[in-house]
């Protein structure tokens, strides 16, 4: 093994794909992440909505690389990069030297200048976010069961999701199913079928990145589940009592933010140009401008496709970028010519609407309904890590499909963001 040290910041899809691609390359790798687990983010909303448990979509990073002596895993948070000295600073005052640095630090919620909304409208990026949202959803029903005041009870039974991208649509569909089909027999003082699920989108349609016909199908499927959809009006106010949609106030005690993301501060660390979302505008080989030994992948990178459209911030894109950078590093180590500039291959877009409807956009091929839901499920099971996780998730979905019962309806996390009544 050579002394070449590759530091990878971020254990998401891009970071792990890169580490996997460097197996046998003869380099030393240090993988740094703020959490000790890799998260399968595409199914995070199913933890938030009581379908799956946390252990079914997350795996300890150390376990993944227990048989890779070339990989050192550190549980730490990066606070800065000195590209001149080629060092990475950690919050515990530790400094890591690197020969090659790969930043795969992801993104977080964007509140468009209203960060004060975050305590009452959490986003969905981490397991902590998912369990917080799950707790709030379940507590809302519990509080409504004991609430005597009709207006307060109605507010408790109103759930608002801001943003109608895939995450917002999937959350709205499952919360509606939970309220209208799973819970009615379990409560005595309230009728959970009267629950309001409000989906707000500032743009003209739900799922704006999908073809219009699929977007229209998704909207009809949501409305069939009882979801109220507000289009063309942004949220102008958000507090513990509810949201203001344009000029209309909706009393809602549970709000989820799914409207936008902003990149990690990687561009600030490096002192390089960034786009409006804070993503590093990378070179064609995914290196940072003027820093050939620093690469940026995944949601932290702004990458353009050949047609001039940006590469979407989804898991397949991050994995392709991580695998590409591994090839670049291998070529440099072996003295071989660098691979051709990165090209993104779009494998399709998928979204679910409840337990038996989905849409899939493969470009020329577009699917919707029951068949799309099964293909969506098989695709996600395939990309899960380990046989146990695949079996567990498949069984959870089959059980819900047959019985209508959600198995992960446990209130276990202490509420810290809002006073419990």
From TrEMBL:
The lineage of its organism: Bacteria, Pseudomonadati, Pseudomonadota, Alphaproteobacteria, Hyphomicrobiales. It holds the Pfam family Pyr_redox_2. Keywords: FAD, Flavoprotein, Membrane, NAD, Oxidoreductase, Transit peptide, Transmembrane, Transmembrane helix. Belongs to the NADH dehydrogenase family. It is an enzyme of class 1 (oxidoreductase). Residues 5-322 form the FAD/NAD(P)-binding domain. Its EC number is 1.6.5.9. It catalyses: a quinone + NADH + H(+) = a quinol + NAD(+). The chain crosses the membrane at residues 370-387. Residues 346-404 form the External alternative NADH-ubiquinone oxidoreductase-like C-terminal domain. GO terms for molecular function: NADH dehydrogenase (quinone) (non-electrogenic) activity. This is NADH:ubiquinone reductase (non-electrogenic). Signal peptide: none annotated. InterPro entries: FAD/NAD-bd_sf, FAD/NAD-binding_dom, NDH-2, NDH2-like_C. It comes from Rhizobium leguminosarum.
């Amino acid at each position: 093994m050579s002394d070449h040290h590759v530091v990878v910041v971020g254990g998401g899809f891009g970071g792990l794909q890169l580490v996997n691609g460097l197996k046998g390359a003869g380099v030393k790798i240090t993988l740094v992440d703020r959490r000790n687990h890799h998260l399968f983010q595409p199914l995070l909303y199913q933890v938030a909505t009581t379908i799956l448990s946390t252990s079914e979509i997350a795996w300890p990073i150390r376990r993944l690389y227990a048989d890779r002596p070339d990989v050192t895993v550190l549980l730490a948070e990066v606070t800065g990069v000195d590209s001149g000295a080629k060092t990475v600073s950690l919050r515990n005052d530790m400094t890591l030297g690197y020969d090659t640095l790969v930043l795969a630090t992801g993104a977080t919620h964007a509140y468009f200048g209203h960060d004060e909304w975050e305590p009452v409208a959490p986003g969905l990026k981490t397991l902590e976010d998912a369990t917080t949202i799950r707790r709030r959803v379940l507590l809302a029903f519990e509080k409504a069961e004991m609430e005597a005041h009709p207006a307060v009870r109605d507010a408790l039974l109103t759930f608002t999701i801001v943003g109608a991208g895939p995450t917002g649509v999937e959350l709205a569909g499952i919360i509606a199913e939970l309220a209208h089909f799973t819970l009615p027999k379990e409560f005595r003082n309230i009728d959970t079928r009267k629950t309001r699920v409000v989906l707000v989108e500032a743009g003209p349609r739900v799922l704006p990145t999908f073809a219009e016909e699929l977007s229209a199908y998704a909207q009809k499927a949501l409305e069939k589940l009882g979801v109220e959809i507000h289009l063309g009006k942004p949220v102008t106010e958000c507090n513990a009592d509810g949201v203001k949609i344009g000029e209309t106030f909706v009393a809602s005690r549970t709000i989820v933010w799914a409207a936008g993301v902003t990149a990690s501060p990687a561009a600030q660390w490096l002192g390089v140009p960034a786009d409006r979302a804070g993503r590093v505008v990378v070179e064609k080989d995914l290196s940072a401008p003027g820093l050939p030994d620093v690469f940026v992948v995944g949601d932290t990178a702004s990458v353009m496709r050949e047609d001039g459209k940006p590469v979407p911030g989804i898991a397949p894109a991050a994995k392709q970028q991580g695998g590409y950078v591994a090839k670049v590093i291998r070529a440099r180590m072996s003295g071989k010519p660098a691979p051709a500039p990165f090209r993104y291959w779009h494998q399709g877009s998928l979204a679910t609407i409840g337990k038996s409807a989905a849409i899939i956009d493969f470009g020329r091929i577009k699917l919707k309904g029951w068949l799309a839901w099964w293909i969506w499920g098989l695709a996600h099971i395939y990309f899960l890590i380990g046989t146990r996780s695949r079996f567990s998730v498949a069984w959870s979905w089959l059980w819900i499909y047959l019985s209508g019962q959600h198995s992960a309806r446990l209130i276990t996390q202490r509420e810290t963001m809002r006073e419990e009544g």
